[in-house]
């Protein structure tokens, strides 16, 4: 018996990286999955391999949110879980960053998450309950040089999560945030970022001295999506190998 048997889940940014890991684990745990992404080639390939349903989905677009939600409800008759996973990272010091680059990060990471919460309220109310998992970051707790836009967006996702948890509890909709640390994905090892980071010193600062596999985040996301997390809402879950303990960070 799977952790998510009977659940219908919508996962954003699901074509690669952590999102792909979420899609695969949710399917293994018994969920029926619809996932969105702007990476159409990768999305269609993952759908063909796994049997999950893919929809092109730019999370900045209310119309594409409606299409993604409608796809889930039309295919499976309900929607129980949303994983707001889609996100981008742009490296640049404040003095050097263009305003449009800042806006793009905020639009995807924050507005896209807000639109997701807004878009699933009605179908989750119709289902009688729901679970929303917003993917933030350890940069939602601490600032990082060159990541002002990313950190601002991820700090804001924390606040959005807490407000949504208070608003939606009356409908039995739980909202929590997950804060990954050093995860071995293409976004985390962005060349512009890696050029500015002393990776050896960074690893030495970790309590668990390695980068995580994406599935190690997915297991926490799946728990929060499941009924086993029935008393968790408005909470923050770090998956960071101890980075935020303050030891050398």
From TrEMBL:
Enzyme Commission code(s) on record: 1.1.1.47
GO molecular function, a single term: glucose 1-dehydrogenase [NAD(P)+] activity
Keywords: Lipid metabolism, NAD, Oxidoreductase, Steroid metabolism
InterPro entries: NAD(P)-bd_dom_sf, Sc_DH/Rdtase_CS, SDR_fam
Broadest EC class assigned to this enzyme: oxidoreductase
Entry's family note: Belongs to the short-chain dehydrogenases/reductases (SDR) family.
UniProt-recorded name of the protein: Glucose 1-dehydrogenase
Organism: Nonomuraea spiralis
Upper taxonomic lineage: Bacteria, Bacillati, Actinomycetota, Actinomycetes, Streptosporangiales
């Amino acid at each position: 018996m799977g952790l998510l048997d009977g659940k219908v889940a919508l996962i954003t940014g699901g074509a690669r990286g952590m999102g792909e890991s979420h899609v695969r684990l949710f399917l293994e745990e018994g969920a029926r999955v619809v996932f969105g992404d702007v990476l159409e080639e990768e999305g269609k390939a993952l759908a063909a391999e796994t049997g999950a349903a893919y929809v092109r989905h730019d999370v900045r677009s209310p119309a594409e949110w409606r299409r993604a939600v409608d796809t889930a409800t039309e295919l499976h008759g309900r929607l129980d879980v949303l994983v707001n996973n889609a996100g981008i990272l742009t490296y640049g010091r404040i003095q050097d960053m263009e305003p449009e680059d800042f806006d793009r990060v905020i639009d995807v990471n924050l507005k896209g998450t807000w639109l997701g919460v807004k878009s699933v309220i009605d179908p989750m109310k119709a289902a009688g309950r729901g679970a929303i998992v917003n993917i933030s970051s350890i940069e939602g707790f601490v600032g990082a040089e060159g990541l002002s836009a990313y950190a601002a967006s991820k700090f804001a996702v924390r606040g959005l999560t807490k407000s949504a948890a208070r608003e939606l509890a009356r409908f039995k909709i739980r909202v929590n945030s997950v804060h990954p640390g050093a995860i071995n994905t293409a976004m985390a090892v962005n060349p512009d970022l890696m050029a500015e980071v002393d990776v050896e010193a960074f690893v030495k600062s970790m309590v668990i001295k390695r980068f995580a596999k994406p599935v190690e985040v997915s297991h926490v996301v799946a728990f929060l999506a499941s009924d086993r997390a029935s008393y968790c809402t408005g909470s923050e879950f770090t998956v960071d190998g101890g980075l935020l303990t303050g030891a050398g960070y």
